[in-house]
Amino acid sequence: MTIDLEGIKKIYQIGTQEVAALNGIDLHIKQGEFAALMGPSGSGKSTLMNILGCLDRPTVGSYKLDGKEVAYLGDDDLAKTRNKKIGFVFQNFNLLSRISALDNVALPLVYAGKSRRERAERAYHFLKAVGLDTRANHQPNELSGGQRQRVAIARALVNDPSIIMADEPTGNLDTKSTTEIMKIFIDLHEQGKTIILVTHEPEIAACASRQLLVRDGVITRDAGRGEKMDVV
Ligand code: ADP
Ligand code: MG
């Protein structure tokens, strides 16, 4: 699945005020790339991720996912595209607190119209893949931060999307959990998934095969693995 952005701009409207968050992003990402997005706070990383993840639309520009324009789809089609093609992982996990880990992972399959049995089987399979099969019946508040993020990753994987996106997935985690989570992303990359993640940590960006620097709503650097990148 290829990603092609051309001339992407995003202007937020707050009352009569306009905030230009993205000022013309051109970006091509091939299937199987591992891209790390870096850049100062407020530079537009989350805005870009939300557009890439089909959680939001640009104001101007083109976003082609596997050659198909998705930038201006209606709500239902945008949600369908997201559910089928993209797994999204948030900094704050975004799990539902009153249902089990298993039911959280199975949720995208409810929207995809799968049977109860298939939902349970697939959810269990992906919980096992992130090492949490023994926690299937626990609610999020009975799990550590790192475990919650692993549940969120299992949920992102449950529809077998070819692209996984994550906005500061280790931003709220300790070093040990961060290492565990990054090992999962590296494994997924080795399995052929496209990974796009936002991070402030140079050590995390070093896991990626490509490093992108966002500044004032534009990409100011596009570097390969191991090239030194000054963020500030
Ligand atoms: P980053 O993730 O790099 O910190 P963001 O994409 O969150 O940057 O924000 C980019 C700019 O857009 C900032 O000036 C921010 O205040 C503004 N912004 C982000 N989201 C919204 C929103 N929902 N409404 C209005 N302005 C927003
Ligand atoms: Mg952000």
TrEMBL record:
Signal peptide: none annotated. Keywords: ATP-binding, Nucleotide-binding, Transport. Pfam families: ABC_tran. GO terms for molecular function: ATP binding. Residues 3-232 form the ABC transporter domain. CDD domains: ABC_MJ0796_LolCDE_FtsE. This is ABC transport system ATP-binding protein.
